[in-house]
Design brief:
With about 280 residues, the chain is an alpha+beta fold. Helix content is about 35%, strand content about 15%.
Length: about 280
């Protein structure tokens, strides 16, 4: 066992050296260190707050929302969130709290907590409600939802009184189990429909990203350099921001007409091309 440590150590040392070479070739600044996606996201949200950008709610998919440190960081900045989470996320339901009973295996810091999936299966039938949230291409988009107040059982909240927040669950009619889960710090008195609307607003972010990549050219960059990519991305985002600003002037998004020229009057006796002569 002792002898096999050396090859592993040499391999890691070589991998780190090769990574350093790649970073220098790509022009990555030395002060830039590795950060996870949630860490980068929190850093960007913090910067947005510092420069005074508008907005009080962060929308996170499950890839980011599962990170409790990111959610806590958003709360510390005085912002609210609607965050997608994984089915195995542990929570305390109303009427339960961290207990002294022997915790289940793998739940040392969350005695008496259950997964959000277990919460969904334990809800009464009259808790679920079909809600429409947006008009789609062919018809209104709707699904079946339930919401309940919970406290998140996180190791980072140990020693503190757990705060309550919304658990929103989507379970389409006919499916064997729920398809999506969200945690939200939106106000306690928010309506059920408004909570669903907020959770479903992420489609706009997905649409923005799709248009950035396909229509404006963000996905067309084929270089490998740090500076080149950031120049390309900056120009794409600036162009997209301009297009969004112009789109706001087109009804029904804006109050005024997008027409820049006055409508032309039809001359007296005008006959469209191809029209038959009057008898």
């Amino acid at each position: 066992m002792r002898a096999c440590r050396w090859p592993i150590g040499l391999y890691l040392t070589k991998a780190w050296a090769e990574d350093d070479v790649r970073r220098r070739k790509a022009g990555v600044p030395e002060e830039i260190t590795f950060k996870t996606k949630p860490e980068i996201a929190l850093e960007q949200i913090r910067w947005a707050c510092e420069v005074g950008l508008p907005g009080n709610m962060a929308l996170l998919d499950a890839g980011y929302g599962h990170d409790s440190k990111l959610r806590e960081g958003i709360t510390e900045l005085g912002k609210r969130y609607v965050a997608g989470i994984q089915p195995q996320t542990l929570v305390w339901t109303p009427g339960t709290r961290p207990g002294r009973a022997a915790p289940k295996r793998g739940r040392r810091d969350a005695a008496n907590a259950i997964s959000v999936k277990e919460v969904a299966f334990g809800l009464r039938a009259n808790t679920w409600r079909t809600i429409r949230w947006r008009e789609g291409t062919n018809e209104w988009l709707s699904s079946r939802f339930a919401h309940v107040r919970v406290s998140v059982a996180s190791s980072h909240e140990r020693g503190e009184k757990p705060a309550k927040e919304w658990l929103l669950i989507e379970w389409p009619e006919g499916d064997d189990e729920p398809t999506k889960y969200w945690l939200s710090t939106l106000p306690k008195n928010i309506s059920f429909r408004d909570l669903v609307d907020a959770a479903k607003l992420r489609w706009r972010i997905e649409r923005d990203y799709q248009e950035l990549k396909q229509e404006v050219g963000l996905g067309h960059f084929e270089g490998r350099g740090w500076r080149g990519f950031h120049h390309h991305a900056t120009l794409c985002i600036a162009a997209y921001g301009f297009l969004i600003s112009e789109r706001e002037t087109i009804p029904p998004s804006g109050p005024r007409s997008a027409a820049l020229l006055p409508p032309l009057a039809v001359p007296h006796g005008y006959r469209p091309r191809g029209a038959s002569l009057a008898a």
